[in-house]
Amino acid sequence: MRILHLGFLLALASGLTAILIYINGLSNHYGNHKLSDEDWEALQSLQSSFQKCVTANGLGLEAVSGTDYCQVTLTYPSDTDSKWKDPKTGEVEGLSFEFNLCEAVATWEQVRNSTTILTREFIDALPHGWEEYAWRRINKGVLLNHCKNKALCMEKLSLVLPETPPYVPRQFGRCAVIGNSGDLLKTRFGKEIDSYDVVIRENGAPIENYTEYVGKKSSFRLLNRGSAKALDKVVELDETRQEVLIIKTTIHDIMNQMIREIPIKNPVYLMLGASFGSAAKGTGLKALEFALSLCDSVDMYGFTVDPGYKEWTRYFSESRKGHTPLHGRAYYQMMECLGLIKIHSPMRSDPNRVVKWVPSRTAIRAARIASEKLLRRVGAGSEDLLSSCSIIKKQVRRKRMSITSLRKAAVDHHKFVKGTTMYPLEHSLGHGQLCTVPVD
Ligand SMILES: *[C@@H]1O[C@H](CO)[C@@H](O)[C@H](O)[C@H]1NC(C)=O
Ligand SMILES: *[C@@H]1O[C@H](CO)[C@@H](O)[C@H](O)[C@H]1NC(C)=O
């Protein structure tokens, strides 16, 4: 009887500890969401310098704070001639746009520490990675029936799927992202663009015959589906054939065939992006995201970001259909005033232009931490490095990346994260990441 009693108590106790551990684990996982006075101050101070920054640099744009610490509305002068019509509703684009600064600062700061290239280790570590994710990245993946035949899926991805990330955060110093706007022909930015460590271009942007305006250097090229299908033509745009091609959509049989048969010697990868909602869909924004995951600083050229928008033009072809130009310009201005990018345009052509009132790195960091708590992001308020990871995979590194040859900033970051690779997870509640941790 005694023994039975004791056994019962023991069972009860161990049950309780199990529950306690579970609750503890859970609260660690979801982090500490209580905002301190310093957190509120950080958000307030971000808002106020943000507003001054938009006024000082936005060529007529004004920022007004909304009802809470995060909401901000960017407004164009009332005499702005809005030209773009939504083809579905026939409505003209409005003159003011609401943004959530907390969302933006938390999500974009995370991008700086993430890997945005799809790897084999990511698919392997993702629960149902092959059946649920990989087959979506293959054109006509539906026919593969959730990768029932995994070997076939792997075969289709093999030419574009490195085992581990080919690049690490901060690998490069100064980077320039070049859009395709017709505005590029208004300023001779060529020499300036060539002075960057890395130049990122988009789709079918030609270099030959335009070098005075767009420069010669080309390190990466981001491709949408249309351009990727013409991979053979795209590789000819860069004479050196060194450009790394990044495909933002699915891999297509035509592409595999071209890589194999032509053969295309350029490295080709698929992009793995974070989700920003409807605000950030175009190739331009994806290129900025990609750049921010590799570079210390990101400068932007060739986007339509000056007042007086008339129609969507490209520097190398006739005008074509564009979309939401005013929304785009406001969004880029927000990015500049969060210290993410620097805008260069015909009206902002002085290479030494200083972005006034851009918040300091310290201020951004404080606002980011406060935002993570407010938005109940995974791991908010925790000092633990891995707290923002909702999936953690220990990985025996077969091939160790030689980090000693990298820039100091990249090595420092690598040490700070102890070699952990962080991948964005699409549609993850609380923006948790997938992390692979090296074990020896
Ligand atoms: C550059 O100009 C030459 C001569 O007009 C033309 O043949 C060539 O196709 C052009 N190159 C590109 C990339 O547009
Ligand atoms: C990103 O990494 C840096 C160290 O390189 C660290 O200071 C910073 O807090 C990290 N940011 C996020 C959002 O985790």
Automatic annotation (TrEMBL):
Domain of life, source organism: Eukaryota
InterPro entries noted in UniProt: Glyco_trans_29 (IPR001675), GT29-like_sf (IPR038578)
Record-linked CDD domains: GT29
Keyword set, alphabetical order: Glycoprotein, Glycosyltransferase, Golgi apparatus, Membrane, Signal, Signal-anchor, Transferase, Transmembrane, Transmembrane helix
Membrane topology, from the record: Single-pass type II membrane protein
UniProt subcellular location: Golgi apparatus membrane
Principal subcellular localisation of the protein: Golgi
Family per similarity comment: Belongs to the glycosyltransferase 29 family.
Protein name listed in UniProt: Sialyltransferase-like protein 2
